[in-house]
Amino acid sequence: MRTFFITDKEEIDQIIQECDVCFVGINEEDGSPHVFPMNFAWHNGDVILHSGPHGKHLDLIAKDNRACVTFCSDRKLMYQHPDVACSYSMDSKSVLCKGRIEFVEAFEEKEKLVKIFMKHYTPREFKISVPAINNVKVWRLRVEEITAKKFGQNFRSQDFEKTSN
User: Fold this and answer.
1) Which of 8, 46, 88, 116 is least enclosed, having the fewest CB within 10 Å?
2) Phi and psi (nearest 5°) for 159?
3) Given this model, what pLDDT does residue 151 score?
């Protein structure tokens, strides 16, 4: 399977915007990885996340705020021959963001980011109540490093493509 780096910022933004879910990786107290899916928004080069105000994730981040967030889009199963297992490949694109999570505490900034977060999933406008903003934990991953790749183009997809459902 061939892998190609993507460096075009617009293509990277498009890959991220096409995703509904990202995967967040943080460190357990013993140093082992802890990865979980989350909804998100992509805003000005930052990943915006949110959760309840308490929990294991928040305790772990308070001890080590380094994080990795991954996105994957355009997944298509491809093969050269349907009866040859090693000829199968996944044609897709991915983005990996590394950085540090900070929690947004200022009410106005939290409200703004929650509205941006909602825009990723629906064009509707929302008036969000004061208790709702006060009871949500808004996370911002300040991206320090970003890597994007496309992989799986090891043969002509128009001849050997099968979309997986």
Assistant:
1) 8
2) -90, -25
3) 79
